[in-house]
């Protein structure tokens, strides 16, 4: 029983270290920004990208995928607070990446859509994710489906602990 406990602790430590590495890599958006800057010829975007957070880029991506979307819907989609989206959309508006509009029938609701500059950056960001997805798919191909199902189930259960 003691050996099993030690084995489980060892695996737990490996998982913690791996998850920590993933989280720190995801929160360190310098590599994403470097990739984006290196792949655009647009000088305005080259100057703008360093000022944007990962949340800004993902918010822009969500807005670009919808014709007009409300802040609350963006928040639900990204699983963040409405307040966080309010700050991010204000920043995106100030940089000219999105625009806001209202319906004449309901002036309380604000809808967001992308500008041409926002579309250009959203498309570039999508290319970044497509490249990452391609690499991760190659990694997944190394494992059988049953193993991948087990990992997915574990991660889903782990996410429910918090």
UniProtKB/TrEMBL annotation:
UniProt keyword Transcription, yes or no: yes
Region forming the signal peptide: none
Keywords, sorted A to Z: DNA-binding, Transcription, Transcription regulation
Entries under Pfam families matching the protein: MarR (PF01047)
HTH marR-type domain span: 1-160
Stored InterPro entries: HTH_MarR-typ, Metal_resp_HTH_trans_reg, WH-like_DNA-bd_sf, WH_DNA-bd_sf
Protein name in UniProt: MarR family transcriptional regulator
């Amino acid at each position: 029983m003691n050996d099993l406990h030690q084995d489980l602790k060892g695996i737990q430590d490996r998982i913690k270290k791996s998850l920590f590495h993933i989280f720190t890599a995801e929160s360190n958006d310098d590599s994403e920004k470097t990739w984006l800057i290196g792949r655009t010829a647009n000088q305005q975007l080259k100057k703008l990208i360093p000022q944007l957070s990962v949340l800004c880029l993902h918010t822009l991506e969500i807005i670009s995928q919808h014709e007009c979307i409300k802040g609350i819907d963006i928040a639900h989609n990204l699983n963040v607070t409405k307040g966080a989206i309010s700050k991010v959309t204000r920043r995106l508006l100030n940089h000219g990446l999105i625009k806001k509009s209202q319906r004449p029938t309901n002036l309380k609701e604000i809808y967001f859509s992308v500008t041409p500059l926002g579309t250009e950056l959203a498309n570039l960001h999508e290319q970044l994710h497509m490249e990452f997805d391609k690499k991760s798919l190659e990694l997944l191909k190394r494992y059988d489906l049953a193993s991948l199902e087990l990992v997915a189930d574990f991660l889903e259960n782990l996410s429910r602990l918090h």
